[in-house]
Amino acid sequence: KKKKKKKKQPLALERMTSSEDERHNWTHLQGSSELGEDASIALLRELAIPFRLFSHPPSATVDAWRPHVASFAPAAQMCKNLFLQDRKKQSKVLIVARAEALVNLKLVETHLNVKTLRLTSPDILSETLGLEKGAVTPLSLFADPDNKVTLCFDRSMVDDPSRPLLFHPVSGNMYTVELQAQHLLAYVRHVQHDPLLFDFELGPAAEQ
Fold first, then answer.
1. What Cα–Cα distance (Å) separates residue 7 from each residue in 35, 90, 132?
2. Which of 21, 171, 178, 190 could make an S-S bridge to 26, C-beta 3.0–4.6 Å?
């Protein structure tokens, strides 16, 4: 008899049991058998990086993501991710910054000696990092072993140890990972991406 192929299962989640985690509806992977479904979660586990994970409705923009963060992780820092390409389509850049940061593209272009950075097409995003539009994340950089992507971080995002950071795993924008800045740095450096640090100003909506 031929063995039936197992259908790919979605990322399995369950609630944590402590009172605070129950209050925030925090969830985590049920077991190692599920880790193959999300390579970024598997790598976090492999590196013994502490993190927390919760599920929510799909959130393709920061504004759509914000109410879920307010419910599940009010003390954490939301981050935005811009995957860009220059006019000649020779340079690819991933900028990761606080959601409230005013990303100065001219500053980045001058430092990298490139011109006219703009958002890449969904096809280029998928080919390079295996992601869909609205779900860009630095946790996908293991998919760039040849370092074709230049990683740029908002300096204050990683310099502030008081607030954990929020990103989507590679499974998509219906999940959010919370981890500390030093652990994010350890993760991206493990996959051979040492970020350039930039000083971006905050917009008027920033919480002080």
1. 15, 39, 22
2. 21
Measured CA angle at 26 (ends 156, 49), to 5 deg: 55
CA count, 13 A, side-chain hemisphere, 47: 21
How confident is the prediction along the chain (208 residues), in pLDDT tens digits per residue? 444 444 433 343 333 323 334 333 444 443 333 334 799 999 999 999 999 999 999 999 999 999 998 888 999 999 999 999 998 889 999 999 999 999 999 999 999 999 999 999 999 999 999 999 999 999 999 999 999 999 999 999 998 888 999 999 999 999 999 999 999 999 999 999 999 999 998 654 433 2
Q: What is the rounded distance in angstroms from the CA atom of residue 132 to the CA atom of residue 125?
A: 7
pTM for the full predicted model? 0.81
Residue 173 neighbours by CB under 8 Å, 6+ apart = 58, 59, 60, 65, 134, 135
Pure H helices in 33-72: 39-46, 62-72
* 8 Cα distance to chain centroid: 23
